[in-house]
Amino acid sequence: MGEQAGKTRFAPVYVVVGLVLIMAALWLPALMVESHDAQRSTYLFLPSLGVAVLTLGLLFKGGTHAGRLCLVLGYFGATAVLALAFLWVPSVPNDAFESPEAQRLFYWHVPSAWMAMIAFGVLFVGSALWFMKRSALGWRLHVAGSEAGLATGLMAVWSGCLWGAAEWGVPWDWTDVRLNSFALLTLLAMVLVLGRRAQPDGVESRDTFATAGLFGFVLVPFTYIATRIWQIRHPGPVIASGDGGGSLAPEMGALLGFAALSFTVLIVGHLMESVHLTSLEQRLDRLQGKLDAEVTD
Amino acid sequence: MTALALGYLGMLTALGVWTWTVMSRARDIERRLASTEAALGLSDGNVDPVVDDER
Where are the alpha helices (DSSP H) in chain A? Predict the structure, then answer.
């Protein structure tokens, strides 16, 4: 107990030290070294390393509050990413964009979609664990995955609409397979979240939602390959394109890497905290049941 | 640029609200659980009532 409490007290120190390190790593080189585009990707290596080391520290030493601390760290990392994307990296000239200013949305849209894919993966694993093993942890993962999938899916759709309006002149294209399959995934998450809140919790309702989560996952690989097969409006992959190269400038790639790391820490924190939250709600339900039984007796 | 800045601020606010909501919900339930368990002299640990009922 004492050791656990010690770990919990110790963990915030990691966050504070890490935030100071991240800020120092972000701004000190910019102050001390003459600004040069080629050096920008080097600057971003340091905060990325800081976030990675801190996250490992939190996961191993954070105790019961590891999820909450990852959440805070991920949120600060995401804020740093968005600030950098807005103020710094978009100065990179890139002819691939019709609307150069709107390319700032890239660092928000792509990590949001990345987080959504992680969340839908967790939803699938949780649904499978519940369906096959009646695992309590599986159900908690299903709940966490669907809630996180809804939030991150909406972020990706919202940023995509803004970008589409600037780049294509229309926020949505109903003929684009990638857009519509991703919207269906987000809709699936919405049905699961709202449906669960509208139904009493029981084996039958859990089976129904887990089945939807299992079969709905088919849309994830379909969404991933959609732009490789049908490129209608949504552009094809700019990284991991499979042809040995990408169209990203090094600075953009470095910031995207930092963004992917920060947003991953954020979604991992959300998923851990959500699993913890569901577990607490189940304990509260259990106590309520006991109280009701005592009153009835 | 103004629309973009507003969009960015909206995104940060939405992320912050989502994060804060999850954390405050957890803290609220932790408080309620601790006081209920203390009042009843119970400590259930990690249980899932639906899984328990099925067993």
Answer: 2-32, 37-61, 66-87, 106-133, 136-167, 177-198, 203-216, 219-229, 250-296
